[in-house]
What we know:
Elements: H1 4-7, H2 11-25, H3 35-42, H4 46-52, H5 56-68, H6 71-81, H7 86-101, H8 107-115, H9 130-140, H10 143-146, H11 155-176, H12 182-198
Helix pairs in contact: 2-3, 7-11, 8-11, 11-12
Amino acid sequence: xxxxxxxxxxxxxxxxxxxxxxxxxxxxxxxxxxxxxxxxxxxxxxxxxxxxxxxxxxxxxxxxxxxxxxxxxxxxxxxxxxxxxxxxxxxxxxxxxxxxxxxxxxxxxxxxxxxxxxxxxxxxxxxxxxxxxxxxxxxxxxxxxxxxxxxxxxxxxxxxxxxxxxxxxxxxxxxxxxxxxxxxxxxxxxxxxxxxxxxxxxxx
Length: 204
């Protein structure tokens, strides 16, 4: 999280830094993000950056919280609403990101993030974040609520199902940015989810 020094800056200066960061994070995967580019675009000294944030991951984590709001609370509400149904929760996550992605200034930012989640080696973006580790565990702890209607034998298989569902969800969020019709994009996502639910092999 940002330091008090950053939080005490004028809103104009904070906005300038975040705008520069948004541009850089939308350009390349987080591993290739250049702090040099951010500080030059924002017109600040490199030393000032480290007075505001620990590193680029710290800045990215803060930006995600600004864009997504309190994701942990939102997920908990989704879980309660869907009674822990992991499939319906993924559909809710898709809808949530699409709503945010419709904000024009966020499109390139979220597209680049989702295209590179695999290279960032993380389910919910920044693995070192304590909040996101809690999110992972929250999903994995839904096994008891899902084992009655999912074809899984144990928690290990349930984790595999979560990985499959989130891979589909991530890819479909990225793909949705290329569609002219958001309803068509969502329908294609739901079709893919149905294939996972029903399987692709004909039953004898």
